[in-house]
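Can anyone check this?
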Amino acid sequence: MLKKFFFGWAKTAVVAVAALGTAVFGLSSAPVQADEPLKVAAIYTVPVEQQWVGRIHQALKAAEEAGQIEYVFSENTANTDYERVMREYAEAGHQLIVGESFAVERAARAVAAEYPEVAFLMGSSFGPEEPNFAVFDNYIHEPSYLSGMIAGAMTKSNTIGMVGGFAIPEVNRLMHGFMAGAQSVNPDVKFIVNFINSWYDPPKAKEAAYAMIDNGADILYAERFGVSDAAKEKGIYAIGNVIDTAPDYPGTILASAIWHFEPTAQKAIEAVKAGNFKADNYGIYSYMQPGGSTLVFDETIIPADVLEAVKAKEAAIMDGSFTVEIDDSEPKSTK
C-alpha cells in the first residue's frame, strides 16, 4: 500500500489570501464579482503530460471544475512564438496569464509591461517586477531531502545516479536537497550526475540512466521521464520527482517529492478577483508547510527504521526546527 503525506493546501491558501487582502499595492483593475469566473490562460512550452507543467495544468483544471475560473491553454509553444501568444491572450481579455518564462524572460516581462491591467504569474529564476509580473517556482527541496534520506539508507553500492533536464536553479536545488538528504544518513554515498539538456526526451534520459547503472548505480534519481523505465528494466529502485508515478512502476519507485501548484494558483486567483494582485514571489507556496509539496513513499519496500527517521525529519521541517538549505549551484558528480 502506498502511503501518502498530503497537507491541506486549501486551508493555508485561505489564510494567505486573507493576509493578501491587507496589501495596499495592486493592479488598477476593479475586483471581479464573486460569482463571476476569472478568465485564466496558460502558456506551456512542452506537452501538459510533462510533469512540471502537468502540476500547473492539474491545479488550474481543478479551479475550473470548481467554477472559479474559465481556463484555456496553449501547449508546445515554441520560444519564438511565446511573446505573440502572450499578447493574444492579453488582448482577448484574460485577467490572469500563467506560464513559464525561463527561456523567454526578457520577452515575457516586456509583454507584461504593455498590459499593466493584466496579472501575469510566471515560472521564473528571477524576481517579480512591478506592477503585475509575479513569479513562482517549484521549491520542493524539502521533500527531495527526505527522499534522499531513503535512497542513502537503501543503496547497497553507495552509488546513486541522477538524471536532470537542465542545470538551472529550479532543478539544481532539488538535486542538492536530495544529495544532502542521502549524505545525512550515509556519508559514503557517491553520485553520478548527468543533464540531458531537454525538458522532455524520455529516450535520452533512459540512455543516460543505463550508463549510470553500468557504472555501479543501484538507485536512480528520476528528475526526468525515462529514468524510471531504465530502473524497472534493470531491476533497481528509483526516486520520483514532481508527480507520483509509483502506480506505473510498482515495486520500483521508493519515494517521490511531489509538487502541488494548488496553493500558488489559489492565492493568485483570489488576489486577482479581489483587485489587489501585485508583483510578488509566490515561491514560498511550494514549501511543505503551506501544502505546496509533499513526500509519498512505498512503505512495503522501505525498512521501518528508515521511515521512522524520515517521518521525524519531516516533522522537524514542518515545525520549523530543521531547515533544508537551498543550493542553486550546478550539482557535480562525486564518483
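Reply from J.R.: I decoded it. The CA atoms of residues 168 and 330 lie 7 Å apart.
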